[in-house]
Batch of 2 targets.
Target 1
Amino acid sequence: MADGLKRGGTRLSTIPRHTLWVWCQCGHNGGVTVSSLLDRPNVPKTVGELVAVMRCSRCKRQTIKDYVITYSGGSWEALQGTRKQDG
Ligand SMILES: [Zn+2]
């Protein structure tokens, strides 16, 4: 349990600021922030459960080949809060 992000068993509610990147068998890949997933009504509890039900937006199949979880650090939100948009 040394690794904070043990694959599969990580609870989504504990990593709202992370981004889940998934690769499909067809070669398509994409990332989604966990926080955006948590807003949905029926969300799997763990990363493993989520990946199991994810569907590729290109081939429409549930053939996730691999996935990785990255930490974005919430820097975007911090930036929004402290700086004004200048275009
Ligand atoms: Zn696909």
Target 2
Amino acid sequence: MITLNLDILEDTLPPGICADIGTACDIPGQVPVFWRAALDRLQTHPRFVSPELNPDLVRRGLCGEQVEIDVYLCSRRSLDAILGYPGALGVHLLTTPDTDIFEDRSSSAARHRVLVCSDRDEFLALTADLAAGDADPQKHLPEYLASYLATVFHEIAHALIFIENSAMLVPGAIEVLSNNGQIDHDCFDCSTCYGIRPLTIDGQEVWAENLDQAVAMMETHTEELAFHLMGFALDGSSSPFLFPAAMGATEEIDRIVAQNASRAAPD
Ligand SMILES: [Zn+2]
């Protein structure tokens, strides 16, 4: 059983850390409500109720029984400061940020964590980019919303794959077992499935032949899995169509879609 926690990162960090990395909480209040409903539903997916754990580790008793994924929404400034480079939409954190903001006191994460940027201006800019030049933005609005919302599921999918390959152990525990020679695989392998199990891509099971291929295949598989998980989780009180309202951006989204529609209309 995998439990999905949800927090706004800046609300959980010690104030001193927020001051150091110049963060501010700028996430509209209804956004966590939207995501909590989606994650509640996602937790009922079979892969979260009965994860497909690495049988080798389970046989050897090297496994956890219950695991949590900490999902953090955060500001653009926070994510850039934590990662040390600009522009990532989200991340599944295997290693500890230099500032050790989670106080892991180890180079590898002591919990399963994903961070996703949740910024109103960025949401609007990305949607406007997709709508620009589109002949029928109104029709394609569901796709714009899906492409934005998929980041949360993409990062959770990364965490799910790691959890299954590590038999629920956290990155820090895998690092210790790997360094001690107790297991043949490390955090990279657990993240990519490299040497552990084949990945299903376009319905076919494929083994990666080298590290570069493992990374590329893992990303393709993760994106497919993310859209599957999103289709499962986003309905009812977390329909994609409710997200602009949660962001307090209904009028702007309507304007973006209408502007481009009128531009694309024949004279
Ligand atoms: Zn990825």
